[in-house]
Design a protein that fits this description.
Distance between the termini: 64 Å
Structural class: alpha+beta
Radius of gyration: 30 Å
Largest sheet: 9 strands, mixed
Helix content: 25-40%
Number of helices: 13
């Protein structure tokens, strides 16, 4: 369908942090590894009377580290707020989150279609998990509180994304940064990274933001985000062409049908009745602490990729493949510490083969496969004669002008020699023999 409107998309990304305990209590943070439901719980994450929250310092530091990696400003003052709404997976009737004074403000991620600005990075607690089952023939919803209270960082972008392809590129880069920092597994299949695009459209050339937006909740795949954006853009265009305005609402994504469906009218900030959490004191930092965070940052993907290109003479594609994960990049660097093998050859092996061995073993394997076992000229001549006699048609084809026949014969000679011998010498002898 021809697009008469330009997509305007902002993203909200929720990422569960890799801490030992939950955000505001000492319960184990392992909702995916729990042997059964509701075993990692206590009065705090079950919202029992008298349970008081105590912030997880490690979760705060990991959030600040992410903000630093994204180029955010880190205010010296921050606080937690109560965000009120009523849902079965939220036992308190409110979520401890952050409203007007988050941990991190601003930042950006560069994509090939332009900069995606970060609006804010803040910290909150995750909800419990609703489990839909059929018991005794009846459809019921059960609640598992193992996830309730897990530290959850939310990254909110500005509406700078203008296509599904750009959304995928941005999300992959953000996912890569999170994995490089080792602050989360960011496993979307498990739900430790959840993606929520806010979608609207406007006329080309229009500068002001549209009067509405539609949020699609809890998507667990980069490709599904693109499909949801494409679906919503087409739907919005049809509504606008009828002279109507798409309703501001929250929708879900049905991956089987490839469409979105309405869930509820979208809330605004006033609906949540935010106010500072009276049980949690505000947080203040010294500039020296913020400066120390920058020293903790590892070499980030874009910087590492540029260094690989410059230091090892790699192509943009090869460097991109090798820096895809911190594990692969580290493996490559350990391999090229052995100067006896070209970095380009090492890169080709890592990219094109499924390498599961240690760096030293890979180098040994490369050397073994590229070592030419010398054979005498007489043995090469004999192999050439054997192949030429066995394939008279290929010889005739070559002499009639079909150059590709020569490569067919060359391949057969190499097989006859079982990979031994210098290939340049083999080709010279074959060429000489064909001219007879």
């Amino acid at each position: 369908m021809k697009q008469d409107y330009t997509p305007v998309v902002g993203m909200e990304i929720h990422v569960e942090l890799k801490t030992k305990s939950k955000m505001f209590c000492g319960c184990v943070n392992d909702p995916f590894g729990a042997p059964k439901p509701n075993i990692y719980t206590c009065p705090v994450c079950l919202a029992m009377p008298g349970g008081l929250p105590v912030p997880n310092r490690k979760a705060v530091e990991l959030t600040l580290l992410l903000g630093t990696a994204l180029g955010s400003d880190i205010p010296l003052f921050s606080k937690f707020d109560r965000k009120h709404y009523f849902y079965p997976d939220l036992p308190k009737g409110y979520q401890i989150s952050q409203y007007d004074q988050p941990l991190c403000l601003g930042g950006s991620v560069m994509t090939s279609q332009g900069v995606v600005r970060i609006h804010r990075v803040h910290l909150e607690e995750d909800t419990a998990k609703n489990v839909h089952k059929t018991i005794d023939g009846k459809k019921v919803t059960l609640v598992d509180f193992n996830r309730s209270g897990v530290a959850l960082v939310e990254i909110v972008t500005e509406p700078d994304i203008h296509s599904g392809e750009q959304a995928i590129e941005f999300l992959k880069k953000l996912h890569q940064i999170i994995r490089y920092l080792e602050i989360s597994d960011a496993d979307m299949e498990k739900g430790s990274m959840r993606l929520e695009p806010n979608i609207s459209v406007r006329k080309p050339g229009q500068k002001e933001l549209p009067e509405y937006k539609v949020e699609v909740k809890n998507i667990n795949s980069f490709n599904f985000v693109k499909k949801a954006i494409d679906y919503e853009v087409a739907r919005h265009q049809e509504i606008l062409k009828e002279g109507k305005l798409p309703p501001q609402e929250t929708r879900g994504w049905n991956e089987d049908k490839g469409l979105t469906f309405p869930q509820r009218t979208k809330e605004v900030a006033a609906d949540y009745r935010y106010f500072p959490d009276p049980d949690i004191p505000p947080m203040r930092w010294k500039q020296a602490f913020i400066d120390g965070l920058k020293k903790q940052l590892p070499e980030l993907p874009d910087v590492k990729k540029a260094r690989f290109i410059k230091s090892f003479g790699l192509s943009d594609y090869d460097a991109d493949q090798l820096t895809d994960t911190i594990e692969r990049a580290t493996f490559f660097e350990e391999c090229v510490n052995d100067k006896s093998v070209s970095p380009k050859i090492v890169a080709n092996w890592i990219i094109n083969k499924k390498v599961t061995m240690k760096p030293a073993d890979l180098i040994s394997e490369i050397k073994k496969s590229t070592t030419i076992e010398a054979v005498s000229e007489d043995i090469i001549l004999k192999a050439v004669e054997t192949v030429l006699v066995a394939h008279p048609k290929a010889v005739a084809d070559f002499k009639s002008g079909k150059e590709q026949s020569k490569m067919f014969l060359f391949g057969n000679i190499l097989r006859e020699l079982k990979g031994k011998g210098d290939k340049k010498k083999v080709m010279e002898i074959l060429t000489f023999s064909l001219k007879k």
